[in-house]
Amino acid sequence: METILFSKTDKIKIVTFAAVAFGLPWLLLPQIRVEGILAYNIPAPYMMILPTFGIILGRIICERKIHGWFHWIYTIAFIESTAVMVLCAAKVITGKAADDMLTVSSMALSIVLLLGMMIDGQELYPFKDLKKAIGIHIMFVAIAQISNLPQLIHAGALRTADEIVSYLLFAPIDIFVVQSIYFFGEEYAWRGCLQGRLQNIFGKRMGVILLGIIWELWHMPLWFQISEPGQGKLIVLLVLMRMPYEDGHI
């Protein structure tokens, strides 16, 4: 008997995910004409919610309903951020206004998301493996300092210690309180949904390798948004930050 890897429902979900996560960035990002750091700050956060919403939209189409508070949060995030992107692309609002809107909405939705995960206490509970999370965070901070290494060398021991302590203490607050809507927007889709399916089909190690390739190709629209040399370094740094966490799951 022939083995069916993907049912009709699976195919609908895959096409929906691809259209949202990969299609929308190529459709909207080339229309965003802003300079400086805003060329990264505006499209990158928007892209980060698309993978999870692509998963959610596929389920909505197939099952004709929204499942729970988590799906509602990302549906709201998608509608709000897409509206901001369209207005920015049409030059109805400035890049600075779009950045401010996305920042305010991300903070509000991130707080709701964090509270929901803590109250729910199930799969998405953020403190299930605190020791491992602390270890990953310390590695994250160490890798983050690579981009600042020349400045830190000339800054002296006191300034360097202050910089590292600031990252250790305040980065988690920024991630959970301000940007968790974005980080979970990636992790829920890539690691929570796609990684398991790829590993079931191709094996544990090859599944993670394929996931890494797909994940990096997903970033391609951002490559064309880079307008300053420092932003290219930022893209490389983000990839390096991802590596320790990926290695822990191979």
Care to describe what's here?
The chain has 250 residues and is mostly helical. 80% of the residues lie in helices and 0% in strands. The chain has twelve helices and no strands. It has helices at 8-28, 38-41, 43-63, 68-89, 95-120, 130-144, 149-155, 157-178, 180-202, 204-218, 220-223, 229-247. It is globular, with a radius of gyration of 19 Å. 22% of the residues are buried. Mean pLDDT is 79; it is low at 227-233 and 243-250.
Poorly predicted runs: 227-233, 243-250
Distance between the termini: 32 Å
Number of strands: 0
> Which outline best applies?
globular
Assign a percent range to the helix content: over 70%
What is the residue-averaged pLDDT? 79
Number of helical stretches of at least 4 residues: 12
Based on secondary structure, the structural category is mainly alpha
Oligomer: single chain
Task: Supply Rg.
Answer: 19 Å
Strand content: under 5%
H/E element string? Answer: HHHHHHHHHHHH
Largest sheet: none
Explain the layout of strands and helices.
Blueprint: H1 8-28, H2 38-41, H3 43-63, H4 68-89, H5 95-120, H6 130-144, H7 149-155, H8 157-178, H9 180-202, H10 204-218, H11 220-223, H12 229-247
Q: Which terms summarize this structure?
A:
globular; 80% helix; 250 residues; disordered C terminus; 12 helices; mainly alpha
Q: How is this structure best summarized?
A:
The chain is an all-alpha fold.
